[in-house]
Amino acid sequence: EKAVNLKKDLAEMQEWMTQAEEEYLEKDFEYKSPEELENAVEEMKRAKEDVLQKEVRVKILKDNIKMLATKVPSSGQDLVTELNVVLENYQLLCNRIRGKCHTLEEVWSCWIELLQYLDLETAWLNNLEERVQMTGNLPDKLDAVNDALESLESVLRHPADNRTQIRELGQTLIDGGILDDIISEKLEVFNARYEELSHLAVSRQITLEQQLQTMRETNHMLQVLQESLGDLDRQLTSYLTDRIDAFQMPQEAQ
Q1: Does pLDDT of 96 surpass 80?
Q2: Which band of pLDDT confidence, cut at 50, 70 and 90, is reported for residue 151?
Q3: Ordered DSSP codes for 38-62
Q4: How far is CA 2 from CA 12, 57, 64, in A?
Q5: Helix (H, G, I), strand (E, B) or coil at 14
Q6: For the domain that residue 46 is a member of, what is the CATH number?
Q7: pTM of the model
Q8: What is d(CA 51, CA 93) in angstroms, rounded to the nearest whole number?
Q9: What pLDDT, in 10s, does the model give residues 105-139?
Q10: Can you tell me the distance from the alpha carbon of 186 to that of 174, in angstroms, rounded to the nearest whole number?
């Protein structure tokens, strides 16, 4: 009777494993939204817990069969053979479910990381757009133009590491068919805005550099002219002080 019950327990265990495999491993998932992906992750976590909880039952079943085989070898040997098959299938099921759970958790982590990098770069683009707009109505002063140019250049020195991460993470998920439509749309919007603002910022940078160069050249010319006028003023003042007649002066002083 005990052998019959143990045989029944083995059959039930094998049936449960078959159902678990069909439900958790053979079902095709399509992750077209973050909600679907998140639900799949949670489901696989529950599946892993469910399978691992059966470990106690498997151990009890194993101990009972080995004890029976020791006491009644004739009845227990067949059960040991069946047990070994069940144990092998159970270990395989555990490994596959753990593997799939780990994979889905990695995919979810990849998605969250992509969103974080997009948030960082979007904040940078907002800052760049603000700096570009600030250069639109500058006072005609050298200091103001110089400050605006330095401010814009400091933002443009932003490293490209985050954009590289966005491209690689996005491509990894798209290649796996994970949230491909959503990610493609997000990347398209981000890249279009990045290209537009980058070109505008570089164009504005060149304009400010040219404006600054022109202002510096003009200031230099004015300074030279001012110094020349100052020298002439002092020379004419000395002539007047000495009461020199105009016709006694050099031609240029007259």
Answers
A1: yes
A2: very high
A3: HHHHHHHHHHHHHHHHHHHHHHHHH
A4: 15, 16, 9
A5: helix
A6: 1.20.58.60
A7: 0.78
A8: 8
A9: 999 999 999 999 999 999 999 999 999 999 988 88
A10: 12
Q: 101 in a domain, yes or no?
A: yes
Number of domains in the chain: 1
Contact predicate 37/107, CB 8 Å: yes
Within a domain: 233: no
CA angle 33, 36, 41 (to 5 degrees): 130
Note whether 38 and 112 are within 8 A (CB).
Answer: no
List the single range of 19-28, 175-184, 227-236 with lowest mean pLDDT. 19-28
As a whole number of angstroms, the distance between CA 10 and CA 32 comes to: 39
Q: Tokens for 51?
A: 């399978």
Residue for token pair 């603000």: 130
Length of the chain: 254
The two tokens of residue 247 are 């016709």
Report pLDDT digits (tens) over 226-235.
Answer: 999 998 888 8
Averaged pLDDT for residues 166-170? 95
- Of 79-93, 95-109, 190-204, 240-254, the range with the lowest mean pLDDT is 240-254
Percentages (nearest 5) of helix, strand, coil residues in the chain: 85, 0, 15
- Asked, for residue 164, whether it belongs to a domain, the answer is yes
Please check the confidence at residue 71 and state whether its pLDDT lies above 80. no
Query: Is residue 61 a contact partner of residue 10, using CB atoms and an 8 Å limit?
Result: yes
